[in-house]
Structure formats: C-alpha cells, structure tokens
C-alpha cells in the first residue's frame, strides 16, 4: 500500500528562500545591477534570477530601470525596516540624548548596536556622524563581527555565561583588522577585562586605523540589550582625554540603562 506521507520539501523551500535573499543582498550592495551581474553575485542561474526578480517586481520590492534595464530595490523594503525599528522605539528614545551629548563633546561618530539573530554580529541601529570631514561612517542596518568590535565586547560581557559560550562556539575569529583577537581564549580574557573596568575597547581589531570604546546599555535584569560606542580615527584619538572619554561613556551608559529600568 502506498504511503500517504508527503515528501519533505523543506530543503527545496529553504534553498528557494536563500536564493531570494541572495538577490536582495546583491541589490543592496550594488545599488542597481544587470540581470547577469545579479545572477553572478547571487550565484544563481540567469533563468532563476530572472524569475525571482519578476516576482519581486510584481510584489513591489524591485523595479527595473527603463533606460538601462538594470534592477534596483524600491522603498518598500525601507518601510519594512522602519517597522522593525519601531520595535526598538523605547531603546532609541532612551539613548537619543546621551548619544547626542557624546557627539557634542567628542565630535566623533557615535554608534548604537544590538546583537543580531545569529548571535554572531552586531547590527548598527543608529549612528550620529562625526562633525569632522574625515570621519568613520556606517549605515543603519550594517553589521560587524562581535569578536572584533568594542560594541560586541560590551554586548557580550554583560550576558549570561551560557549565552556567551554558545556564541563563542560559532565564532571563527577570522582576521578582520590588523589586531583581531586570535581565538576564544583571548576573547574571553578581553570580556573579563571589559566587565571589570566597565567599558570595552578595541584598537584596529575591526579596521586598520580605527579605535573604538563602548559601554553596555542594560535593562531591568542587568543584561545588556544594546551598546553605545565612540569611534575614533587613530590619528585623532587624544590619549590625554582618555579618562574624559571613559567618564562620558559610562555616564551615558548608566543613564540610558536606568531609563530602561536597570537599578544596579
């Protein structure tokens, strides 16, 4: 008697979803691109890529430029992103004045980041750009590895040991900058130092010529839910003002955490 059990199509469905996101990420990186370029970068056939693009166009997420026939994303995805950020509304409001104060006092780029869904990356959800012409910029929604950023260290140092262990098991510690930490042992030591001193720091671990300092933003449970950082070009970092930078950051971290219910 034939089995009535339906075949498991999950692998095929997952593969289709992965292809969709490969196309979306390619368009996000390229701005606009031809069918051939998208297929090449997304590593899918032209026929599959064309079919996906037509579906995305029908749904309003992609448009095709009349003059060049290149494809680009529409603002519909921005609307989805804006709705996602509304879920962080309390956090964004709590950090607003403190980040503005850091910006006014230092003139440098001020970043707010959270841990992403994979537990491997920090996602930037707000930035106040530097007042200097030569400055460090990142876009809202961009990501960087937890193990090579001051934001990542500040986020993990105030998380449960079990969660930290789970994150560390997945980390590759592939070099990102000239001084990227080499392994889990070095990173654990850095996390311990970060928690002991109350702030995180990295020097050229994520990018050559860049130095960052960060503090956690903690909720009523005492765990970090976000982190705030100052990003300096190395040539503009003033060691004589180090204690002032630390004092400013820790004050902002404390005030923001208290606004979220932390009473430590």
UniProtKB/TrEMBL annotation:
Coiled coil: none annotated. GO terms for molecular function: DNA binding; DNA-binding transcription factor activity. GO terms for biological process: negative regulation of DNA-templated transcription. Residues 76-262 form the IclR-ED domain. It comes from the Bacteria. SUPFAM superfamilies: GAF domain-like (SSF55781), Winged helix' DNA-binding domain (SSF46785). Keywords: DNA-binding, Transcription, Transcription regulation. This is Transcriptional regulator, IclR family. The lineage of its organism: Bacteria, Pseudomonadati, Pseudomonadota, Alphaproteobacteria, Rhodobacterales.
